[in-house]
Amino acid sequence: MKLFTEFGRFLLMLRGMFSRPENGKMYWKEFMHQCSEIGIGSLGIVVIISVFMGAVSTLQTAYQLVSPFIPLSTIAQIVRDTVILEFSPTLVCIVLAGVVGSKIASELGNMRVSEQIDALEIMGINTKTYLILPKLLAAMLVIPMLVVISAVLGIWGGRLAGTLTGILSGAAFDKGLHQFFKPYNVFFALAKAYTFAFIISSIPAYYGYYVKGGALEIGRASTKSVVVSCVLVLFSDYLLAALLL
Amino acid sequence: MIEVKDIRKGFGDKIVIQDVSAIMQTGKCNLIIGTSGSGKTVMMKCLVGLFEPDSGEIYYDGQALSEMNEEQRKELRQQIGMLFQGSALFDSMTVEQNIMFPLDMFTKKTYPEKLKRVNEVLDRVNLKDANKKFPAEISGGMKKRVGIARAIVLNPKYLFCDEPNSGLDPQTSLLIDKLIKEITTEYNITTVVNTHDMNSVMETGDNIIYMYQGLKEWEGSNKEIIFSKNQRLNDFIFASDFLKDAKDMRMLEMKGKIDNNRNMDELLK
């Protein structure tokens, strides 16, 4: 029963976000601020994860391909498809659920507890529109970009690891990259990225916006939002794979 | 003027406000007092529209709050300034940005015009050289003054203050009380203050509403409160022996039985 109540309140929150902005310039400023917070703020961790994720993929794929009949360029194909289809969208978004999600939940939670949200309401500002919508739109714009960057860096990391360890030459890796490439996979990765971006921005916003209590509750809301976001990312990952592949 | 008619508010089975009626007059400090849990904060949140009353009506200059559509409510809220208990300043903004925020959001003024207005209100609350400081870098009393400055920057018609003296030393409390009183008369606004600070009650209470367990128990001015026969109110206001003695002295003074200009040094010899 509680689940339905919470889901209903979540939907009402989403509906409440769509109202006419009091001042478009201020909303644009907030949107750009959130783009910078989410995009630039998470770029470092995305770069590190992606490069190592690609490098490890190359090493492990090479370790598993023991047959001399399989050409080495296949390693590049496998790395490319795993990175594009799964690692970049899902792994990066799970990490972002922690980085971005906890930030959104604790920021809104703190604003709620310290009555800053009430102060905005009293001024006549629709707080859902001003505080949540820019975060959601920024996440929807920036996270797919981060996923694309992650895929490029992941493949580059794989190539780097492959050539540095002498598993395969750069030319063999590049040859493999071009073999049997399906552009649909990029579409699938982006579809996942948009879905996950929505999840990892709206769920923490919900938990943060409706927090009640003090510092302890903000911490709990932040943790809960990350856990729920991660579970929903994995669930929707499966659902999208079943539907689109 | 704000008129409250028979408002009732509850959460689940618990009724927090029961059929309270009152009139908050323009140009006066209207105080809501009462013990913790008496319903005064809920009452204030109903007044500003943060909570919807279960029944009853609130009228702002004759216009019923419940009959206002979203746009009308937004317009009304731009005429409301509120000072929160914890000041509710935006942590990520400087003092100047905090005060400029309502101007940014609701006016089309240029930056120099907005800055001029910010400096005017900062000057009005006697706060100088704090423009570039963040809320974390200023004292509690300064935060309250910034809160007041932000509340009056759009020239509101109604000012709400939720426990403006909480966490402040007596001297700073008096300064804040004086400031609220001055602003109320200077701008001729309807001020509603939620407090349980006895100094505030005696200094600023033009119209006082005493709430007890969600009911309006007593209403009067700071001049009448001292002669009140309401036992609950007396127990609340004059809780300590010191305050009881002070009340007796004040009553004798007011009846002319003690010289108001007596020399205390002589008496203490």
Helical segment count of chain B: 10
Compute the separation of the termini of chain A in Å.
34 Å
The number of E-state strands of chain B comes to 10
* Topology, number of strands of chain A: 0
For the report, how would you describe the main beta sheet of chain B? 6 strands, mixed
Specify the helix fraction band of chain B.
Answer: 25-40%
Shape of chain A: elongated
Description:
- The complex is a heterodimer of chains A (245) and B (269).
- Chain A has eight helices and no strands.
- With 245 residues, chain A is an all-alpha fold.
- In chain A, helix 2 runs parallel beside helix 5 and helix 5 (127-165) crosses helix 7 (183-209).
- Chain A has one domain.
- The model of chain A has no long low-confidence stretch (mean pLDDT 92).
- Chain B has 269 residues and is of the alpha/beta class.
- Chain B folds into two domains: 2-240, Rossmann fold, CATH 3.40.50; 241-269, no CATH class.
- Chain B has helices at residues 40-48, 70-77, 95-106, 111-124, 140-152, 170-187, 198-204, 231-237, 241-254, 264-268, and strands at 2-11, 14-24, 29-34, 55-60, 63-64, 80-83, 158-162, 190-195, 207-212, 215-220.
- Chain B has a six-stranded mixed sheet with strand order 6-7-8-3-9-10, sandwiched between helices. In chain B, strands 2-1-4-5 form a four-stranded antiparallel sheet, with helices on one face.
- The radius of gyration of chain B is 20 Å and the shape is globular.
- The termini of chain B are far apart.
- The interface between A and B is medium-sized, with 15 and 25 residues.
